[in-house]
Design goal:
This protein folds into four domains: 111 residues, Zinc/RING finger domain, C3HC4 (zinc finger) (Herpes Virus-1); 55 residues, no CATH class; 46 residues, no CATH class; 153 residues, Up-down Bundle (Four Helix Bundle (Hemerythrin (Met), subunit A)), CATH 1.20.120. Helix content is 49%, strand content 8%. It is built from 13 helices and eleven strands.
């Protein structure tokens, strides 16, 4: 309101005091018209187009200019006049360009609208071209983070794909917050845990520093690279072990303590990581299998209806699909509980309670999955139990999401993680 002209110029729209805000598209040039400022041809016998700024150019130059700008991916096309701030509206592009170029411009405009929006975001699922307005979208599975800052904002696009609008991960990762998900992913992608394994199961040659793995019971090691012979136990030259002085039999408290301490710490960190990683991957694989069960459930429902066309109505057999959806949601939560648990301090009261809720949800989910895999003939008989277990599992899932430890505790544990001993995988 203080400077409306400046605001309009920055936005590329006609000024408030402009005589007309409607562009003149492909109109005959008036009498006494001059020449086109682009091709320098006379406008007397040409059809011209001008925006609200009244800068007129022949339609041929307009079409060429717009096509070049659109091919470059430009969605903010200005009037060809030098330093004119006015944007070219969509109707001008549609009128002067071929249908293919106009469609490409519309696609660019749609993508630009989502990219520049404060609330809209693209669905990150491969092949999906839909966008979601996060201000109006309904949250899914764990959207209520219970005060856990940075947990995520989980929404679903029109194609049914659930994702996190904050970190753009194509799945619901509650109860693990976005920052820990990124740390965990990096941990699983880099080679640090491989180095951790090497520090436990291998040693470096004392001479050329090549990594050597012990493949037999003898402690007499010969490096394949430099042929250096050394002792696996103490790392000293093997020649001295043949003399009267046998180094390995002499206990050096400081050296042995440091060496064993480092190995024990590395081994413990590796085992701790593998404990959480294997369970994380197990639920990830189970989710994919449950997704296949989703299709099998529909076939099962049709089979039940064909078997009992009079008694097996959709309302009678749809409990199979509801049970499968519940199992998938529970396994998705269980998958990410192991990420959060990995970063929590061991034996802390918060983690003990969290692990208790985790075990409760896991036992109910496994029982539900077991029932859903039974033959078609027995599913109707187990309908009441499946519905009861689905309800109990859903309640346990919500209870775990609301009772997850605060993010601050997890972040502190992750920040304080010892680099050599508990490095990522």
């Amino acid at each position: 309101m203080e400077d409306p002209q400046r605001v309009c110029m920055d936005a590329g729209v006609p000024l408030p005091d402009a005589p007309s805000t409607v562009p003149v598209v492909s109109a005959p040039a008036g009498k006494g018209s001059g020449e086109c400022q682009i091709c320098r041809e006379s406008l007397r016998k040409s059809r011209v187009t001008s925006l609200a700024c009244a800068h007129a150019f022949c339609d041929t130059c307009w079409s060429t200019y717009l096509a070049l700008r659109i091919q470059e991916g430009d969605t903010c096309i200005r009037c060809p006049q030098h330093k004119c701030p006015l944007n070219v509206p969509e109707e001008v592009v549609v009128s002067l360009c071929t249908p293919e170029i106009a469609l490409r411009f519309k696609d660019f405009m749609r993508k630009s609208f989502v990219d520049d929006s404060r609330s809209a975001t693209w669905c990150p699922h491969p092949g999906c071209t839909l966008a979601v307005d996060t201000d109006t979208a309904v949250g899914v599975g764990g959207d209520d983070d219970g005060g856990h800052g940075g947990l995520g904002q989980f929404v679903t696009c029109g194609a049914g794909h659930a994702f996190c609008a904050r970190c753009k991960r194509p799945e619901v990762h509650a109860p693990a917050p976005c920052d820990l998900v990124r740390s965990w992913q990096k941990k699983c992608d880099d080679d640090s845990e491989t180095m951790n394994w090497l520090s436990v199961h291998t040693q470096d040659c004392p001479q050329c520093k090549s990594t050597i793995e012990k493949n037999g019971g003898c402690n007499h090691m010969t490096c394949r690279s430099c042929k250096h012979e050394f002792c696996w136990v103490c790392g000293g030259p093997w020649a001295k072990h043949g003399s009267n002085y046998y180094n390995c039999s002499t206990f050096n408290a400081d050296t042995t303590k440091d060496k064993e301490s480092n190995k024990a710490a590395s081994r413990s960190a590796l085992e701790r990581y593998l404990h959480h990683f294997t369970r994380y991957m197990n639920h990830d694989a189970s989710i994919k299998l449950e997704a296949k069960t989703r299709q099998r459930a529909e076939d099962t429902i049709r089979a039940l209806q064909e078997k009992n066309p009079d008694s097996a109505q959709w309302s009678d057999v749809s409990f199979v699909q509801r049970g499968v959806e519940c199992a998938i949601q529970c396994r998705t939560v269980l998958k990410w509980t192991y990420v959060l648990a990995f970063y929590l301090e061991d034996k802390a009261p918060e983690k003990e309670l969290f692990c208790f809720m985790q075990a409760d949800l896991e036992s109910r989910t496994e029982r539900l999955s077991e029932l859903l895999e039974k033959p078609v003939e027995t599913l109707i008989e187990n309908k009441a139990e499946i519905l009861a277990l689905a309800g109990a599992a859903s309640n346990a899932r919500q209870k775990l999401l609301k009772g997850a430890p605060p993010v601050d505790a997890a972040v502190a544990a992750a920040a304080g993680e010892a680099a050599p001993a508990a490095a990522g995988a």
